[in-house]
Amino acid sequence: MGRGSLDRRAALLKVALENLIADIRMDPRRYARMIVYKALGNLVDGFLGIPDLVGWFVTTPGGAVEDWLLDFVEGAYRPQPGQAS
Predict the structure, then answer these.
(1) Residue 44 within any structural domain of the chain
(2) Can you give the pLDDT of all 85 residues of the chain as single tens digits?
């Protein structure tokens, strides 16, 4: 891995962070909700004694809770088909 590839990765990381910051500024409540989903999922996994690294490879019960909360709560913020705007 040469120096050029590290420079490219640093530039990509910088752009990704700038995009994340812009997204958070546009909708800070959504990101706050996602932090809550993540914390609840970690709480479930911790209660069940599942190590953190397992979630990187398989969906844990806590990960399933996060996904369900995301779908259920965020679905309330999406317009339903057939609704007038």
Answers:
(1) yes
(2) 555 556 677 888 888 899 989 988 998 998 899 899 999 999 999 999 988 787 778 889 999 999 999 999 888 877 667 655 5
Q: Which residues, including other chains, have CB under 8 Å from residue 5's CB and lie 6 or more apart? A: none
Instruction: Classify residue 47: in a domain, yes or no.
Output: yes
Instruction: Work out how many domains the chain is built from and give that number.
Output: 1
Give a yes or no: residue 85 inside a domain.
no
Q: Is residue 81 part of a domain?
A: no
Burial class of 18 by CB neighbour count within 10 A (0 to 12, 13 to 18, 19+): exposed
